[in-house]
Amino acid sequence: MNKPRSYTARNAPPIDRTRPDGPLIQFFATPPEPCPYLAGRLERKLLTPLTGSRAPFTYDDLIKRGFRRSHTVAYRPACRQCDACVPVRIVTREFEPSRNLKRSIRVCASWRAEEFAEPTALPAHYRLFQRYQATRHTGGNMARMSFAEYRSMVEESFVHTRLAEFRNDAGALQGIAIYDRVENGLSALYQFFEPDLESTSPGSFMIAWMVERALSLGLDHVYLGYYIGECRKMAYKARFQPLEALGADGRWAPFEPVP
After folding, report:
1. Domains of the chain in sequence order
2. pTM of the prediction?
3. Are 174 and 124 in contact (CB under 8 A)?
């Protein structure tokens, strides 16, 4: 797979994985509220704080059990009458891009990537985020984010969070990928890009880049969050094969949804 033409890492110290002792994890359930993905359904979540020195290790354990991160909280669906959300992850060593994905990789292959070990909410990044939201998610909560709220999303983390920016040959900012490093992989949190580039699928390119980055670190997986077959915005994850899904038995197994 063609990788970005150049890659630099900014202030990337080795990760200390000495596991401190600590109390048992406490979980909290949210009350039912309208599902943001499937109309007419209600969602509930199981939550636990991700703060303090134990947060990275708690996250390492929970992501293998289908949890995701938002700010300083780990969560997973706990809906009583719906199991549409399927946790999925890419198997990095076996990843083979599809024909359409290879096209995106070719188009974006000259982009230069720079990884920030300490994610920073820069004004230029926020302006790109605003343009992306105004085009792709008009009327959503994220489209109304202030710079302070965006900064909280990017910087508020007690785990090993990274940010990569992508620039073209002329040095113009094209996209941002925010992700976490966990014990056995990378967890893709959020990607956004210049909206005029949508036809070239830069979001998919940035996920493919994360696969290459995970491989360079000797990591086995890229966690993509939840696949929802009935939701177009979440069904795209099936493009990244081979995928594994977390089953009801708590085991990860090969997953290739039927179109």
Report:
1. 1-259 (3.40.630.30)
2. 0.89
3. no
